[in-house]
Design a protein that fits this description.
Order of helices and strands of chain A: EEEHEEHEHHHEHEHEEHH
CATH superfamily of one domain in chain A: P-loop containing nucleotide triphosphate hydrolases
Distance between the termini of chain B: 44 Å
CATH architecture of one domain in chain A: 3-Layer(aba) Sandwich
CATH class of chain B: Mainly Alpha
CATH topology of chain B: ABC transporter involved in vitamin B12 uptake, BtuC
Strand content of chain A: 25-35%
Number of domains of chain B: 1
Strand order of the largest sheet of chain B: 1-2
Bound molecules: adenosine-5'-triphosphate, magnesium ion
Oligomer: heterodimer
Number of helices of chain B: 11
Structural class of chain A: alpha/beta
Radius of gyration of chain B: 19 Å
């Protein structure tokens, strides 16, 4: 079953066509990798899917419901979408714990005026932060963490939302091997739980190991799509990568 | 009666009012990052609303105070809904927000003058039983005592909401980065609209208390706002406790200054303090940089 259907989506930034009539189906309950040279539109695709950027044209169907062109990022949760960013985005002046708790709150802000975070929220945050070894650091400000810890915290924040679709933009970039293993475990576990993961990553070894399917993008267009071992050996794919 | 104790009492009352203005201003500034000139006039509008209900319609004084606070909160809500929220959608610059808020200030002032004339109005005789208590060696009226205690209560409540509740966390997240909050799925527009309601309602309390303490006039909003802003700059913008402490400090400096010089110097003293801080400690007394 395809959980995401993109039909001829278009996005341009003053003259640059970042997404050029891209049509793409993404299978539910698996890991789809997106690769492509720098500037090929991978991040733009993630931005569009998460509502962080608006669409110029085309349609997106999520789980059989049409997503309106003007969907805002905060409406993500309605469609069960969450994401991380290529350039880490945390609430720097908030604690590690609060960075996670804050996304658990949104559903009913008015009701939450006089409500502390529930016991359930705290337990969930604890469980998630322990996976990435950040529970001990829960009272530190996010700005005081190391690069890798910040990356892990951002992933943890995404995990706490209970989404169906997880968009990760280069979650391994700049991580030490130990942390890479942690993130791999997290992503594999999401798959076991029946979630859909979309992963942008330049490291082909990791992509081969993780992905069920690989999408290759070039210049905002779909170049190739299929099983990792097929796609990553295709001549035109190699040309795009080696040719740059 | 001891002059010194009396000055300290007066300073505490002034400080409490400035603290309320600073609290509301800080809250809104934190979430939206623009200088909201309308804030002071909304405070004064709260005072006038109470005056209207109590003195003109004859509503019970406590109920009138409540209605005044609600009116101020509502003004904050519609100023955001009709002006600031559309500007945010258009990604307008801070300068445009500022000018727009000046516009709102002028409109509110004009409407108040039209309805109530530009004369000084006072709410004080409303608490007819304005008993005087002799405290230590100074005199504090019942109104002033209620005022002071309510300010402490409101500050306590606000700090509790900000530090302990989920709404508070969401507000801190938006103050940290509205863009990130929006992009990770927080409905920042809605939260900002709560912030306007809460911040303006708190300002309304300040305006009402000015009405009880010294009386209000339509154009008082600006100087009231500036006192709150001075407090929040001295306390370190965005620092709740700092702003409150600085507000009381400002009250003290002003009142001691007035004692030494004369009443006309009051505002000049506040601004001198502000300029000293801007020159030598722009991050504020307790500033987070
Ligand atoms: N906000 C923006 N404003 C202007 N141009 C943009 C913007 N975002 C992306 N672009 C342009 O769109 C194109 C696609 O960029 P995008 O970031 O999606 O590439 P990418 O595949 O993620 O690259 P990388 O591997 O370097 O992360 C690039 O030419 C980029 O310069
Ligand atoms: Mg990218």
């Amino acid at each position: 079953m395809n959980i995401l259907k993109l039909k001829k989506i278009r996005k341009h930034f003053n003259g640059v066509l970042a997404l050029d009539n891209l049509s793409l189906d993404i299978k539910a309950e698996g890991i789809t990798g997106i690769v492509g040279p720098n500037g090929s539109g991978k991040t733009t695709l993630i931005n569009i899917l998460s509502g962080c950027e608006s669409l110029d044209g085309g349609t997106i169907i999520i789980d059989d419901s049409l997503r309106s062109k003007k969907m805002r990022a905060y409406e993500n949760s309605i469609f069960g979408i969450t994401r991380t960013f290529q350039e880490i985005r945390l609430f720097e002046q908030m604690t590690v714990l609060d960075n996670v708790l804050v996304v658990l709150t949104e559903k009913n802000v008015l009701g939450a005026i006089f409500e502390k975070h529930g016991e359930y929220h705290l337990m969930k945050a604890e469980e998630l932060l322990k996976v990435v070894n950040l529970w001990e650091k829960r009272n530190e400000l996010a700005i005081n963490l190391s690069y890798g810890q910040r990356k892990l915290l951002e992933i943890t924040r995404a995990l706490s939302t209970d989404a169906k679709i997880y968009l990760f933009d280069e979650p391994f970039a700049g991580l030490f091997p130990e942390m890479i293993k942690t993130v791999m475990k997290i992503i594999k576990k999401l798959k076991e739980e029946g979630k859909t993961v979309i992963l942008v990553e330049h490291n082909m070894l990791l992509m081969r190991e993780l992905c069920d399917e690989i999408v290759v993008m070039d210049n905002g267009k779909l170049l190739s799509k299929g099983k990792p071992e097929e796609v990553l050996n295709k001549k035109k794919v190699l040309d795009v990568y080696l040719g740059k | 009666m001891d002059m010194l104790t009396q000055i300290i009492f007066n300073s505490l009352i002034a400080g409490a009012i400035y603290a309320l203005v600073a609290l509301g201003f800080n809250l809104i500034y934190g979430a939206t990052k623009f200088f909201n000139f309308a804030h002071g006039s909304i405070a004064i509008a709260g005072g006038y609303a109470t005056f209207y209900f109590n003195k003109i319609l004859g509503v019970d004084v406590y109920l009138s105070v409540l209605l005044g606070i609600l009116c101020a909160g509502f003004l904050g809500y519609i100023s955001n809904k009709l002006v600031f929220s559309p500007l945010r959608k258009k990604k307008s610059s801070h300068m445009i927000f500022m000018v727009a808020s000046l516009g709102i200030l002028i409109v509110i002032q004009a409407v108040i003058s039209l309805i109530f004339t530009s004369e000084f109005q006072t709410l004080s005789s409303s608490l007819a039983s304005s008993k005087k208590y002799i405290f230590l060696t100074g005199i504090i009226t019942k109104t002033q005592l209620i005022l002071f205690l309510s300010v402490l209560l409101i500050m306590g409540l606000l700090v509790l909401v900000l530090k302990k509740t989920m709404l508070g966390k969401t507000i801190s997240a938006i103050s940290d980065s509205e863009e990130i909050a929006r992009n990770i799925g927080i409905n920042s527009n809605r939260v900002i609209s709560y912030v306007f309601v809460i911040g303006s309602a708190i300002a309304g309390v300040a305006g009402i208390f000015v009405g009880f303490d010294t009386g209000i006039s339509p154009t008082m909003g600006m100087s009231l706002l500036l006192k709150g802003v001075i407090a929040s700059i001295i306390g370190g913008v965005g620092n709740v406790y700092g702003g409150v402490l600085a507000a009381f400090m400002l009250g003290l400096i002003e009142n001691f200054g007035v004692w030494n010089f004369s009443g006309e110097w009051k505002d000049a003293i506040s601004f001198a303090v502000l300029i000293l801080f801007l020159l030598f400690r722009p991050q504020g007394m307790f500033g987070k940089k």
